[in-house]
Amino acid sequence: WSRTATKADGVLSVGGVPLTELVREHGSPAYVLDEDDFRARARAFRDAFEGYEVFYAGKAFLCTTVARWLAEDGLSLDVCSGGELAVAERAGFPMERIGFHGNNKTLGELERAVELGVGRVIVDSFDEIERLARVTTELGRTTGVLVRVTAGVEAHTHEYIATAHEDQKFGFSIAGGDALDAVRRVLAAPGLRLLGLHSHIGSQIFDTSGFEVAARRVLGLHARVATELGVVMPEMDLGGGFGIAYTTQDDPSTPETLARGMSEIVEHECRALGIERPRLSIEPGRAIVGPSMCTVYQVGTVKEVALDGGARRSYVSVDGGMSDNIRTALYDADYSATLASRASGAPAALARVVGKHCEAGDIVVKDEFLPGDVRPGDLVAVPGTGAYCRSMASNYNHALRPPVIGVRDGKTFTVLRRETEADLLATDVGVS
Ligand code: LLP
């Protein structure tokens, strides 16, 4: 839960706004974004990682409001598509504080990034280095470049979001020699200014040993570039991926602990290699925005089923589902839920919070104990939905993507409005 979530008489409030009122005003389902909590987390990373450049990973959740908060609070921004870049541009985000990611940026995206003057393009393939070099020459511009490398570590997280083992699409292999080759090619291109190496090992990671091994290997390459190519790169980006608590089982590290750990490893390694410490940056997304949002749903139907062995489970169907939170279906992610609109003295019963989509895998919360009298009309809130929920939301079954409602000091403000059927039909130009 965000820091300002409280419950009185069974009614959950966030940012001083009772969710019953929020739903009365804005409808359901809705994502609720706690401004103070978001900004406190962003500043906590900025302050704990003093001397680092902290890039917020926009893929976790991005809109102009959040981009403005980040700009004001002195963070930088990682974008990974022309669309995210467009949001940053509209928000007036300082372009020199943007890092542009992606393993297959289009020519158009690269041209736009160079024209806008983004601070760093993180290159991810030989094709891209060549393409970016051409773009800078044609536009008569230069651009800062980081080379994304693969450290060859197995991050302990879901297979789909681990990115530092060899057999996946991101980065240049350090072990295989491509990374050094990529560095050479960047150095040879007149429009590209080599700033450093970049490593991101995966997401929702708790075991920090993966970061350690990666940092060691990337620093090893950094030192080789100095000795073999005579080039001292000023920077190094160690990526994001810091895990958050989705349930009470998870025990995430604080930004301070992460910063201390990372700085110790880097300092130790730099001493051992006899090199100067490059200016470091990190890219947390989930750890900033994840806990600062929850989703509030209204219950539509409740159905009890018998389980093997005689136990029972109630299927609590809410007015959203896998279109606003695909993570449970896609990564088998765990979430929790709470009755948010009233107190209940009913004994807790095993429940599964499911959506309204046409497939059985449309599950929001796999297992939760909710009061046994949960009924249609109740509101249920799911915490920790700030990261990769709205940003991965879809219009499956022609669902309208929910709004993001900001809350602060007892007031609400619309950050992203609810989609309408007109929005959906606007792209359907087949029949006039
Ligand atoms: N930097 C790079 C280069 C990344 O690829 C990512 C995430 C991040 C930073 C931020 O990672 P974070 O701190 O948010 O973990 N959709 C998945 C997560 C995919 C992460 C993709 N890259 C999920 O819902 O778990």
From TrEMBL:
Pathway it works in: Amino-acid biosynthesis; L-lysine biosynthesis via DAP pathway; L-lysine from DL-2,6-diaminopimelate: step 1/1
Domain Orn/DAP/Arg decarboxylase 2 N-terminal positions: 36-290
GO molecular function terms attached to this record: diaminopimelate decarboxylase activity
Entry keyword Nuclease: no
Residue(s) carrying N6-(pyridoxal phosphate)lysine: 59
InterPro entries: Ala_racemase/Decarboxylase_C (IPR009006), DAP_deCOOHase_LysA (IPR002986), De-COase2_CS (IPR022657), De-COase2_N (IPR022644), De-COase2_pyr-phos_BS (IPR022653), Orn/DAP/Arg_de-COase (IPR000183), PLP-binding_barrel (IPR029066)
List of residues binding substrate: 286, 327, 331, 359, 388
Cofactor(s) needed for function: pyridoxal 5'-phosphate
Subunit structure and binding partners: Homodimer.
Function: Specifically catalyzes the decarboxylation of meso-diaminopimelate (meso-DAP) to L-lysine.
Protein name: Diaminopimelate decarboxylase
Gene, per the UniProt record: lysA
